[in-house]
Specification:
The protein has helices at residues 3-10, 23-26, 34-52, 59-68, 89-104, 115-125, 132-140, 142-150, 153-161. The chain is mainly α and 162 residues long. The chain has one domain: Orthogonal Bundle (Hypothetical protein af1432). Helix 1 (3-10) packs across helix 4 and helix 5 (89-104) packs antiparallel against helix 6 (115-125). It is globular.
């Protein structure tokens, strides 16, 4: 199976570790307490453990993505404070996609962002939070990504996860 197909399939399940977060914390409107954020951070390890125990073709990539999608280019992320090329490229790609998707959707306590604001945010986080090569490819493709985002969110999810 080609890498892009495996990445696409892995992107469907990388955040499975969120099942360990109780709904009171996951859907909270206010800023999380230190203790609550520590619970949220555990979803990366839980997802890795769940996925690595499986024996499917894409679970190896999904497990790595789960473990590393909150690592930052500058080492400021979690859970292991990896930086730069220590972060798997699949996780770096999904980190940008995950952030764009999260910001574009309304969340408890926060309205959805306009696409222009998301673009500006991603640009400013290059070499801080995000792999600059991934950001460059994202920006090259920003028009088509924006067109996809402007369609119905359910259609986006169905297309993204088909």
């Amino acid at each position: 199976m080609k890498y892009c197909s495996r990445l696409e399939q892995a992107a469907r399940i990388y955040d499975i570790g969120n099942i360990i977060i109780c709904s009171d914390v996951y859907e909270k409107d206010e800023k999380l307490s230190f203790e609550e954020f520590e619970i949220v951070k555990e979803h990366t390890r839980a997802g890795y453990d769940i996925l690595i125990a499986q024996n499917f073709l894409t679970t190896d990539i999904a497990a790595v993505i789960s473990a590393e999608h909150h690592e930052w280019w500058n080492g400021g992320g979690y859970p292991r404070c990896l930086k730069e090329k220590q972060i798997d490229i699949s996780a770096a790609i999904v980190a940008v996609a995950d952030t764009v998707g999260a910001l574009y959707r309304e969340r408890p306590g926060r309205k959805a962002w306009e696409y222009k604001k998301i673009l500006d945010y991603i640009k400013t986080r290059s070499k801080i939070q995000f792999n600059p090569d991934v950001v460059e490819v994202f920006l090259i493709n920003q028009k088509i990504i924006g067109e996809i985002l402007r369609t119905d969110l359910e259609a986006i999810e169905n297309k993204w996860y088909e």
